[in-house]
Automatic annotation (TrEMBL):
UniProt cross-references to PANTHER family, sorted A to Z: GENERAL STRESS PROTEIN (PTHR35792), SLL0268 PROTEIN (PTHR35792:SF1)
Top-level taxon of the source organism: Bacteria
Protein name per Swiss-Prot or TrEMBL: Gas vesicle protein
One Pfam family in the UniProt entry: YtxH
InterPro entries: Desiccation-related_membrane (IPR052928), YtxH (IPR024623)
Higher taxonomy: Bacteria, Pseudomonadati, Bacteroidota, Flavobacteriia, Flavobacteriales
Amino acid sequence: MALLTGAAIGAGVGILYAPDKGSKTRKKIKKKANQAKDDISVRVSRATEELSRTAEAKKEDFERRLEDTISTMSYKADDIIETLEHKLADLKKKNAKYQKDAVIETAGKPKVAAKS
């Protein structure tokens, strides 16, 4: 954009110093200004299209990665839940064994009557 602006200014200055009539010089300036305007319009349009394509590609890439991440997290969550269920089952077995052992230990000891 800076290069194009510099070129337009340089062309304008060059035209102003050219030894032509005023009307001819004004026509040249107008023609160059219109060419510069058209060129800028084309470049802006191309840049906008390129930016849109890039943004769309980035959006699609982000959505794909997000889906992959969610899928991976879902599998990991399932694995964690399964592991916790196994640990809970083991704890229930151990608890049942401790309760059974506690009942056997107290069954062998004489009971003390409560004082009133």
